[in-house]
Every structure is written in C-alpha cells, then in structure tokens.
Specification:
468 residues; mainly alpha; Fumarase C, Chain B, domain 1; Fumarase C, Chain A, domain 2; Ribonucleotide Reductase Protein R1, domain 1; two-stranded antiparallel sheet; 4% strand; elongated
Length: 468
C-alpha cells in the first residue's frame, strides 16, 4: 500500500520522482530519531492532558513509541522509501503499530516546531560530547605543561626567531585558547535552551497545552517566547557552527606548529606511530597526517559558518523549506569537531618533545630583546637601545658570527652602555627567569598559570561553577 503524503489533500497526482527524491531529507535527519521519539512521548502526554487522547489511546501510543525506541537502539527501525523525513517516518510507523491513535499524534503541532525542538535536543547531547572531549584535552595540556615548566624552546613571530619561551608556557597558551572555546560552546547551548514545540506552523497551537510543563519534561529551561520567531530561528545553528569553527581554527594553528615541529628540519617533536601514516611510494616517510587532517577539517568548518549565515540572510520571516538545508553541514561539523578534538588530545598526550633539539635551536638572536632591555636598565631610552642592538646584529651578520661570538669591542662600538656582563645574557635560563611577570614565560609565572588553569578546570567540571 502506498503511503499518502501529509499534504496530499491539497495537491493532485504524484510527485515528479526526481523532485520527490530532491524533497526528501530522511538521509540527513534520520539521526534525530531518538530525540524525535522522546519529543513525541512528551507531546502524547500533553495531548492526553488536553483531552485529545483517552487513557486507552494514550497507552497504545506510549507502547508504540517504546517499541520504536527499542528499534532505534537496535538499529532495526524500518525506514521506508516513501518517508519524507524522520517526522513522517515516526508517524507512519506509529500508525502501523497502534492504528488510528498514531494518526492523531500530529494534532496541534507542525513539522516546523517539531524539527526546531528535535534539533535543539540533539544538539544538547552532541555539544555535551564535544564539551567532555575539550575538558579532557585541557586536562592533558595541564599535565604536559607541568613537566615542561623550565624546558626552553625558541619562540617565533612571523616564523622568525623572536625570544626564548618555555615549552610549558607554550602548552598553556593552547589551554587558555581552548578554555575560551568551552565557554563559547556552552554559551551557544544556553541560548538554544528554548523549546519551540507548541508554536505550530507559525501562529501557535490552538490546544490547551501548558508549554512550561512541556518544556520542563523535555529538559528545556523555558518555552520560546514568540511562535513566529521560533519556527524560523536558526541562531543556534549559526552560533554552534561558529563556536566549533573557532575551536577547530585554534586546533589548526597548533596543528600547523606541530607539523613543522615534526619536520626533521626542526625535529622538536616525535609522534607515536599510531598517530602518523606512511607513504605509498617513499619508504622513509612518516607523515603527521593526524595533524594535517585537523587543519583540513578546520577549512570545512569555516565553510559551514558561511553557509548557515548565507542560508538565513534572505529568508522571509517564518518557516521556509530552505531551512531543511540547516542540518547536513551542522551534523558533519559536529562529527568532525569531536574527532578533531579527540585526535588533538591524543597527540598532545603522546607526543615526545626533543628537548635537546629545542635547546640547540636557541640561536643568539633570540636574546636581542634581552640586550636592549639591558641597555634600558643602564639608562638608555628604549628606542636608542633598540637601535644600538640593531647595529650589533648587523655587525654580527657582516662578520659571519653569532652575537655571542662578537668581541666586547663590537658591543662598546654599538653602545658605550654595554659591558662584559652583557655576554652573560646568552643563557636560556637567565632569559626565562627575567620574565616572571603575570602571564609571562618564567618558571614562577608558568607555575602561577598552572594553578589558575587547575582552578578553572575545577569550575568547568562543575556545571554550577563560574568560569571566570
């Protein structure tokens, strides 16, 4: 028997087969099945309270929904080719299981408010999964930073030697970036905590439904304030997309660093074999593909932000079928965001730093700012000190020597404020120790950062705690 479309009373004849396939969203929204069934149970109870279902009918519907939930968990739910979307699949299957009461479940609501509600419920669980992985990554970064507080390494700007850093300070920079991502993900989730169900197609249901009770049953903070706004609202998709894209952008930047570190030219990092791949042609290769894939997936995430904003920008108010396109990119982003965070965490947990290579890469030009600061402490204005050290660097380059190998006479020629003690500045431990300002790379500062990071982690693990 051919199942009729929900809207067939208005239109005659069947759909063009290509358009029917084009119109179907089941391939994408079928993953909403579990939350759709949860929503349907709450709506059935609301219909009973409104007098639409009698006790026997409600019992049949509840039993049918329970049976479908088992099918969903076991992966045996019988989707049909004629199902337009997950909502119609549930209505069809429920009617098969319990007869006419199944056809009454749609009373007082529309697929417009259904999909908005199910999408929010689904996002709640998916964001919790990403959140948990981010928290685990933050914990990993703290653990790794604790053991690298005093490990010196070259710090770069413009990919050029800049100043000496500690590896612990570097790892904590990643911690603070990802901690902001946790806050963004959670903030997006909080703003999405409004239930559209009961908004109907656009004007609100005519049934005597207590939407506050319904919202509480489905775990929402409150019902949506305006039915017209609710059915077309995809702010949550845009906000979640941005929050996850920003997370992946952060991961991509650190992944880029680590790809460079894995190169034999630098050799600062070694990946375990389980997080690398080889070459199908070149036997010697060990490729950091785990990190390169993170960079690639960040690009797709950025595209999703552009797509969802472009989708919304020209739509008239209320629901439009364009909004059916809101989920494919979002679902893909949710999947890849979790994978990226998890892979990044495993790399952060398992990589081996080559401390000797990092120390060997500490070239003399990393101490140029220390030389300028030395002159400042001797009373020279900073711009004059900057110019003097610049002359010294130029002299070293002309002589083909490193800064520390220049004779003292070259220093005195650059500035009379130099003396022999300036040559003691070419020491990474000395350079780090001079930067114990709050937020700096000195050991005491990094230790203070670690304490703050542990405190923040405690707050982030407590859903009622303040993050800042």
């Amino acid at each position: 028997m051919t199942r009729k479309k929900a809207w067939e009373g208005r239109l005659s004849g069947g759909l063009d087969p290509l358009f029917e396939s084009f119109n179907c969203s089941l391939a994408v929204d079928r993953r909403l099945l579990a939350v759709e069934l949860e929503q349907d149970l709450a709506w059935a109870n609301a219909l009973a309270r409104a007098g639409v279902y009698g006790p026997e009918e409600l019992a049949k519907v509840r039993d049918g929904l329970a049976a479908m939930l088992v099918e969903e968990r076991e992966g045996t739910f019988p989707f049909a080719e004629t199902d337009e979307d997950v909502h119609m699949a549930v209505e069809r299957r429920l009617t098969e299981l319990c007869g006419p009461p199944g056809e009454k479940l749609q009373t007082g609501r529309s697929r417009n408010d259904q999909v908005g509600t199910s999408l929010r419920m689904y996002l709640r669980a998916e964001l919790a999964r990403v959140d948990a992985s981010l928290l685990a990554t933050l914990s990993t970064l703290v653990t790794r930073a604790e053991s690298e507080i005093a490990t010196p390494m070259p710090g770069l700007t413009h990919l050029q030697p800049a100043q000496v850093l500690s590896l612990g300070h570097y790892l904590l920079s990643c911690f603070w970036a990802l901690s902001r991502d946790v806050e963004r993900v959670r903030a997006a989730g909080r703003r999405a905590d409004r239930m559209p169900l009961g908004s109907g197609a656009l004007a609100g249901t005519t049934l005597n439904v207590d939407r506050k009770v319904l919202a509480a049953e489905l775990g929402f903070a409150r019902p949506s304030e305006n039915s017209l706004d609710a059915v077309g609202d995809r702010d949550l998709v845009a906000e979640v997309s941005f929050a996850l894209a920003q997370t992946l952008a952060h991961l991509s930047r650190y992944a880029e660093d680590w790809v460079l570190w894995c190169s034999p030219a630098l050799g600062f990092m070694r990946l375990p074999d389980r997080l690398a791949t080889g070459s199908s042609l070149m036997p010697q290769k060990k490729n950091p593909d785990s990190l390169e894939l993170i960079r690639g997936k960040a690009a797709t995430a950025i595209g999703q932000v552009c797509a969802i904003l472009s989708l919304q920008k020209g739509l008239p108010i209320s629901y439009n079928k364009d909004l059916q396109e809101d989920k494919a990119g979002l679902f893909s982003l949710l999947d890849s965001a979790w994978q990226c965070v998890e892979v990044f965490r495993r790399v952060a947990e398992a990589f081996e730093p080559d401390r000797a290579r990092m120390r060997a890469a500490l070239t003399d030009d990393l101490y140029a700012t220390d030389l300028a600061d030395y002159l400042v402490k001797k009373g020279l204005p900073f711009r004059s000190a900057h110019e003097a050290v610049g002359r010294l660097v130029r002299a070293a380059a002309a002589a083909g020597l490193s800064l520390s190998k220049l004779p003292l006479a070259a220093y005195l020629e650059a500035s009379a404020h130099f003396d022999a003690r300036a040559l003691e500045l070419y020491d990474p431990e000395v350079s780090l120790a001079r930067r114990n300002v709050a937020g700096g790379t000195g050991a005491a500062s990094v230790a203070a950062q670690l304490e703050a990071a542990r405190s923040l982690l405690t707050c982030l693990h407590d859903p009622n705690g303040s993050t800042r």
